[in-house]
Description:
Layout: E1 14-17, E2 20-23, H1 41-58, E3 66-73, H2 79-90, E4 96-101, E5 111-118
Parallel strand pairs: 3-4
Antiparallel strand pairs: 1-2, 2-5, 3-5
Helix pairs in contact: 1-2
Amino acid sequence: MNDFPVPVGPYQTARKHGGFLFLSGQIPLDPNSGNLVEGGISSQTERVILNIAGVLKSYGIDWKSVLKVTVYLTDLNDFAEMNGVYSRLIGEPYPARSTIGVASLPKSAKVEIEVTAALS
């Protein structure tokens, strides 16, 4: 069983540099099948957050080490629902965050999230 999916393109899942961990944007892929998870924005947001938690864990850190989050949504009308899942799963203290509306995402995902975390 995998904690996070393999990249869908020519990039690394994460890269360390200067005491920081830079995670590539994660979409809601099942870490074992590599398929997009079924359901709406809630289930997709939860899967992305769990995938990111798996990447962070592989570097010996967790969400409390995350400094900055960027959320990409294909429909900004999903903001409130995404935000509810995010706040429930992340917990305080919340990292700095931006949310950006985009026309589309890989594999027709509704949400993509990228993070920067401190390694120390």
